[in-house]
Amino acid sequence: MAKTLAHDGYKPGDVILEAPVPYVQMICSQYRGKICNFCFKESESLKKCTGCGWMFYCDKKCQKSDWAAETRPGHKHECPVLKVLSFVDSVVDQGMLTSLSDMFFAAVRMIANHRVKPSLRKVTVNVLGIDRCYDDLISRLEEIKSDPQMSQSMGRLQPLYKQIFDSDVSLDEICEANGAFLENSLHITDPITKVKLGRAVYLESSIFNLHSSNPNATPVFLGNKLQILAIKSIPPSQPLHIP
Ligand SMILES: [Zn+2]
Ligand SMILES: [Zn+2]
């Protein structure tokens, strides 16, 4: 059933909402080291996080913005976990390690941060009159667990999670984080070339019906800033759909 909310209607080109920064974001693995992990700008001279060696930033400002924030998961709690990843060789083969997806990194970030700071799950944004927090997102936990292929692929990575977190990570924790990212993330695309650079979950966009094949609005990205524009005339209170 489509999500509905009260609004006064939109005409094509209207800005429905703006979100300055995602709750969690990850760049596609093929762009690691080529695009800033915070602002998504391309650069030849990104600086590597010396803590973990996995994240790259334009400068201190971007690094600081990604490190710790009151309202969203940050690199601070994930950096020691990713550091261990560089030394992992026993439980997974090197092929798997180099092909770890943006979804894996997003899940690690969420698990690491939600473990240390469970209150993040309740941080609320008000969007068009509706309060949304991480716990309001659809995670499809039960659906993933009951899908043999999905639960098998999550289960295959469980020893890796255990090794990098240095403690048991339950299949529920893994499926919930991956499910939340899969279900709620938008593809961040270059505004000019339309190339997919990464994916991000915005609490703000969770009021929309996502991954729609018949959208009436579209996301536009400036770096990691999101704008959602109406692309059709949308009568008052009609459900909002984005691709
Ligand atoms: Zn940057
Ligand atoms: Zn780091």
Descriptors for this entry?
three-stranded antiparallel beta sheet; binds zinc ion; single chain; 243 residues; alpha+beta
- Gyration radius from CA atoms, angstroms: 18 Å
Intertermini distance: 16 Å
As a percent range, the share of helical residues equals 25-40%
Overall SS class: alpha+beta
Largest sheet: 3 strands, antiparallel
Strand tally: 10
Shape: globular
Number of helices: 8
Reading the helices and strands in chain order gives EEEEHHHHEEHHHHEEEE
Q: What percentage of the residues does DSSP assign to strands (E)?
A: 15-25%
- Average pLDDT, rounded to a whole number, is 90
> Which small-molecule species are bound to the chains here?
zinc ion
Number of domains: 1
How do the strands line up in the largest sheet?
1-10-9
Poorly predicted runs of 5 or more residues: none
Descriptive notes:
With 243 residues, the protein is an alpha+beta fold. It has one domain. Helices cover 30% and strands 17% of the residues. It is built from 8 helices and 10 strands. The strands form 4 sheets. It has a 3-stranded antiparallel sheet with strand order 1-10-9, with no helix packed on it. A 3-stranded antiparallel sheet has the order 2-8-7. A hairpin with a 2-residue loop joins strand 9 and strand 10. One zinc ion binds at residues 36, 38-39, 41, 57-58, 62.
